[in-house]
Amino acid sequence: MNIEQGRGDGDGGRHYVNPEPFNPKALETLTPEQEQYFQASQWQIMWWKFRRHRVAVWSAWILLIFYLLVPFAEVVAPYGPNQRSAQHLYAPPQVVRLFHEGSFVGPFVYGYTSTLNLEKFRREFSEDRTKVYPIRFFCFGPSYKFWGLVDGSFHLVCPAEAGTLFLLGTDRLGRDVLSGLIYGARISLTVGLVGVAISMVLGIVLGGIAGYFGGLVDALIQRVIEILKSLPELPLWMALSAALPVTWNPVWIYLGITVILGLLDWPGLARAVRSKLLSLREEEYARAAAMMGAKPGRIISKHLLPGFMSHIIASASLSIPSMILGETALSFLNLGLRRPAVSWGVMMNEAQDITIVTIYPWLMAPVIPVIIVVLAFNFLGDGLRDAADPYK
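The structure corresponding to this sequence follows.
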C-alpha cells in the first residue's frame, strides 16, 4: 500500500514509499554500464576517472608534444643548436606572414636590413620588404647527425634558399633561439625523468624498509633523511655540481647532474612511504600474507605499495618539474651544463645581464617552455592523483 507521511518539520514535506514488496533478486540486475564498471580492472577505472579531468588531459597532450621534440629535434629544428650566422648577431624575431602587397604568397618572412648605430654601439635590424623569403616545409636544409649516428639533412621546416628563418631571433653569436629551445628540450625534459627514476627507487626501497621493519633500521634511515633535509638544497646542488670536473664532456656532465638531482630528492618520498607502511603493515591482509609465508619484499610490493599509489604518482609528477627547475637553475648559474651542450638553463645563461635583456628581450624565450612544462606537470599530477585515489 501507499504510505505518505509528513515529516513533521513544519515545511509540509512528504516522502513516498514504494508499495511493491521487497525483491532481493532485483539488486542482482545491473545495467551494462554498471556491469562494465564492476568488472573493470584498477587501471581501467583510473583511466576512466582521469579522462574526466579535462585540465589534466590537456596537460598530458601538451607534455606529449614537448616530449616528441626529444627524439626528433634534428628534424624539427630549422638550424643546428650551435650553427652561427655572423651577419645576424642579436637579430630580432621574424614575423610569419601570408600576404605581400595584397597578394597571397603563403607562409613567408621578410628579410633584414641592418645598420650600425655608432651612438649606441650596436647593430640594429629592420624589415626589408623587398626581400620575401617563403618558408619551406618537408625540405632538405642544414646537415646534421641524427642522434650523433646517422647523417641527414631532412627538416620539417627550412628557411628559403639564401634566406633566414629566425622566428625567435638570434643570440650574441647569431645562433637561432628557436632551434636552441628545440634541442634544449632533449636535456631539460629527460633530466627530470631520469632523476625521478633514481629518487623513486631510493625513496620506495628505503622508505619501505624503514616502515616495514622499524626498529634500528628505521632509526638509522631517519637520521640519514634528517641530515639530508637539514642541508640547504640549492647551495648543496651548487657545491656538488661545481665538484664535477670541467674537463668532462657534456654527456658525463649531464649524467652527473642527473644523478645528483636524483640522490637529493628521495628523502621526502621515503618518509611518506615509511609513514604509510607503518599503518598498513598492521592490516589483516598484510598479516595474513606474512603468515602464509610471503617474503617482506613481496608483501611490500604486492600488498602495501598499491594502497597508496596515488601519493607515489603525485610525488613523481611534482618531482619532475622540480628537477627541471634544478637543472635550469644550475645551468643558469654556470654550474651545470655548458656550451656546446644545449639546455633551457644554458640558454637562459645568456640573459643574466639585465641590460642585455632590456635591449634584446627575446633572449628570455627559454622561460616560456619552462613555465608551460612545470604547470602542465602540476596539472597532470593533480589528475593522476585524483584518478588513483580509491576514495574518489
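Residues 302 and 334 are 44 Å apart (CA to CA).
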